[in-house]
Amino acid sequence: MALSDTDVSDVVDSLSLDEKCSLVRGAADPEGTATGYVPGVPRLDIPELRLADGPLGIRIPGRSSTAFPASIAVASTFDPELARRQGVAMAREAKASGQHAVLGPGLNLVRVPNCGRNFEYYSEDPVVTADFAAAAVEGLQSEDVIATPKHYVANNQETKRLVVSAEVGERALRELYLPGFEAAVEAGAGSVMTAYNRVNGTHMSDHRRLVTEVLKDEWGFDGYVVSDWFGTASAVGAATAGLDLEMPGISLEALHEAFGIDPDAEMLAEGDDESIPAGETTTPKFATELKPAVESGAVPADRLDDMVARILGQMARIGLLDGEWGDGGALDTAEHRDLAATLAARGTVLLKNDDGALPLSDDADVALVDPGVAEAMLGGGGSSEVTPAREVSALEGIRARTDGSVAFEPGVERVVTPSFFDGGDADSDGDAEDFPGGKTPDVDAAADCAREADVAVVVVRDATTEGADRETLRLPGGQDELVAAVADAADRTVVVVQSGGPVELPWRDSVDAIVESWYPGQADGDALASVLYGDADPAGRLPVTFAPEGSYPAASEVRYPGVDDEARYDEGVFVGYRHFDAADADDEPTYPFGHGLSYATFEYGEAEVRGDDAVAVEVTNASDRDGREVVQAYVRPPTVAGVERPTRELAGYAAVELAAGATETVELTLSEHAFRRYDDSEGWTVDAGDYVIEVGRSSRDVRAETTVSR
Ligand code: BGC
């Protein structure tokens, strides 16, 4: 039985000042497993608290756990139930490794396509982000683990992430950047991690308005707020603003030592302002400054009590204070492996498929051109890196599935994802012995190989990481030239793109099919083969817009990466498809938000309003194969003089399995979020009038319309 609030406050009363101070800051984990560690208080039987990184799996140094697909792939399923199941699985893996809190999900909005951490986030859309946030938190916490949604808030770029100030208006904060966090809090999140950056000039660790007034007072968040690692700007400022726990609470040197990280690793070198802060900021603040601040009254004693009570409250909630924690942990189970594979396949987006190039016939002779052939694409670099116990590469997956032959060529040198944990070497090593059969990278050999086969499958990838943004949306390492050369030579070319977010596909008109599989995780090759051969319908839809780099709303220096450490969010709420749909947008998306093809063909009937907040539509699978459709509903608001609103906003969606020939009435609940707007003086406002509900296959493929009034 969890301890009650009264019991927790009794425990707080029994603690000395030193003990209280030791509970609100991290220390080195004597076991070396936790990313963040809070020592216990043995005198009062208060156990230790361990926090482990997510959000793609549980990262424990020296141990393996299930490597799930990137969060952007999970969101591409448009099926939050899968995110809930992933949360359950990750919580079970955390428990099996003695970890009480998981540092995830990542809830920052995809504002800038170049952001190096987009793969850790869900979407450019707040409704998708909020739904997946709630589902992930529910899943994680159903297994007595503390979820830690991060990074609160407006951490939308890695460039200058420690200092940049997001100069963002209240409307954009409310309509775009906060809803994911609010949904996580509503779902009961036990913790929230503050972001490194500043918002409107104030570091998020010290942001009293957003941390205390909005998160705690307005939303009723009763868990603890933890800093990002070395992201506590000041002791008194942070404690009085509402920060409850400082991490890691030890110096950078001590942290490097604890994790065996090479301190000279380029990406982690102290002072590299894109990664780890210099000097002062890497010195823990609460360790030396909190106790004197409480003694002098600069931090009120009851604020410290509240900090401790919030942490103990979560420990009590998961059963840690009464010795009941830890049942049901399990690592790398068959169930978790299957879930990783299901997520990877369902998150795969078929961007293009001309003349039925896909699915492949079972006996097609395949030329696999894959510079990353020896390995699965697990994720991007940084704190989310997970080491799985098993992984399946594209070559292994296709070989295991096909009845035809598979010839292989790497084409170009391997594109290596930079790692935080191997010395941060971002250079491609491309050693010949890395490739099966001792093959060497050679574009002409790849083209020759493609010419001989029935179909060429080219697997290309980007290399993104925490701590740095992508300089360009083009694929690195000569891969665009490789695709062009193969497409020229082959009868049929299928390109598989493994990327952390939108990329440019300059060769897209000369290839037959394009599959976006993001970072699919350990099940990479299996999931890919199941989609390529049609065992699974590619059920993913884009949670982000694909467009030419210069056409995104943040494509000006003042907006991104910012000038003088300020990034001006002047585009307001016109981010992602909200920008591309606006009448004055110059460019069309290459592939719009919500886009994704299926091997089946779906027909839509009339849309019909159900009650106040739902719409129903009959969907028929008019093909001769089973399929999975993601039915989407967007709201077009009425015109109101003097008010600029997005043309359409996603309000609801449902992923449905439809057998060949089957018809189903699909009912979508419409999120109120899409009807209301935030008015700087009035707050949330719903304008009276007719709202058109567009129902269809994507934000640009509307199949039925109806109207509701507000
Ligand atoms: C990241 C967080 C992560 C933390 C601990 C930071 O660099 O921004 O997402 O949870 O490190 O590894």
Describe this structure in words.
The protein is an alpha/beta fold and 710 residues long. The chain has 18 helices and 25 strands. The strands form 7 sheets. A 6-stranded mixed sheet has the order 10-15-14-13-11-12, sandwiched between helices. Helix 5 (126-141) links the parallel strand 3 and strand 4. The longest helix is centred in the N-terminal third of the chain and has 17 residues, at 80-96. The protein starts with a helix and ends with a strand. Residues 266-275 and 423-430 have low confidence and may be disordered. Beta-D-glucopyranose (BGC) is lined by residues 35, 53, 103, 150, 228-229, 383.
What's the SSE blueprint?
Blueprint: H1 5-14, H2 17-23, E1 36-38, E2 49-53, H3 71-76, H4 80-96, E3 101-103, H5 126-141, E4 146-147, E5 165-167, H6 170-177, H7 179-186, E6 191-193, E7 198-199, E8 202-203, H8 208-218, E9 224-226, H9 235-241, H10 252-259, H11 286-296, H12 301-317, H13 334-346, E10 349-353, E11 366-369, H14 394-401, E12 406-409, H15 443-452, E13 455-461, H16 479-489, E14 493-498, E15 513-516, H17 524-532, E16 566-568, H18 577-580, E17 602-610, E18 614-621, E19 627-636, E20 649-658, E21 663-669, E22 677-679, E23 683-685, E24 690-698, E25 701-709
Parallel strand pairs: 2-3, 3-4, 5-7, 5-16, 6-9, 11-12, 11-13, 13-14, 14-15
Antiparallel strand pairs: 1-2, 7-8, 10-15, 17-18, 18-21, 19-20, 19-24, 22-23, 24-25
Helix pairs in contact: 1-12, 2-11, 4-5, 4-13, 5-7, 13-17, 14-17, 15-16
The chain binds beta-D-glucopyranose.
